[in-house]
Amino acid sequence: MSQRVILVIYDIHDDDLRLKVAAFLKRSGFARIQKSAFSAPYTPALLSEVEAGLRRLLRERDRYDVQVYVMPRSSYEERIVMSRGYTPEEGEELLI
Amino acid sequence: MSQRVILVIYDIHDDDLRLKVAAFLKRSGFARIQKSAFSAPYTPALLSEVEAGLRRLLRERDRYDVQVYVMPRSSYEERIVMSRGYTPEEGEELLI
Q: Among A30, A87, B13, B95, which is least packed, fewest CB within 10 Å?
């Protein structure tokens, strides 16, 4: 099992670009953990792929902030989650 | 210097509750790194305080997901940031 986890969090103003980023992360094998947060087991290849893909999608775009973290699996698994009445996909379908 | 960093990411449906959570994190000494993401140097006391404060704010509320990570400082400092035309406070003032 991978010893590290990739976490991607983003805030993207444009609806269309935001949906494209989410779709790209899903295609790359990431799991959605919040509407604007995705995680996947770390591999060097996946990190390279996701960084390159995000840079390609964001090229010549504006008003965005995307952050990619690589953390130990323990940091990820021991995170504190407070959640109620929440599904990460909620709302997105309305925009498609 | 603290060897770890606390990262808080959230998705909160209610505007008023979302502003309260942001204000609480700022008061607790967190820095805003995205509209819905805050970070601070880890101490056991701060982690306890922030968890208790968030649980208090979220009590009897609905439609939220809040996640609190504690990661090595290296994971935080080596994160990849892609950002353009972005300020994390943008948009929030409109709601106040």
A: B95
Write out chain A's pLDDT in tens, 96 residues.
789 999 999 999 999 999 999 999 999 999 999 999 999 999 999 999 999 999 999 999 999 999 999 999 999 999 999 999 999 986 565 444
Predicted model pTM: 0.93
- CA-based nearest distance A45→chain B, Å: 15
Alpha-carbon gap, residue A56 to A21, rounded angstroms: 10
Is residue B86 one of the residues assigned to a domain? no
B58 → closest Cβ in A65, A71, A82: A82
Query: How far, rounded to the nearest angstrom, does the alpha carbon of residue A12 sit from its chain's CA centroid?
Result: 12
Q: Is the ipTM of this complex over 0.90?
A: yes
In a domain, B22, yes or no: yes
Any B CB within 8 A of A29 CB:
no
Q: Find residues 54-93 of chain B whose CB sits inside 8 Å of chain A.
A: 54-55, 58, 61-72, 75-76, 78-86, 88
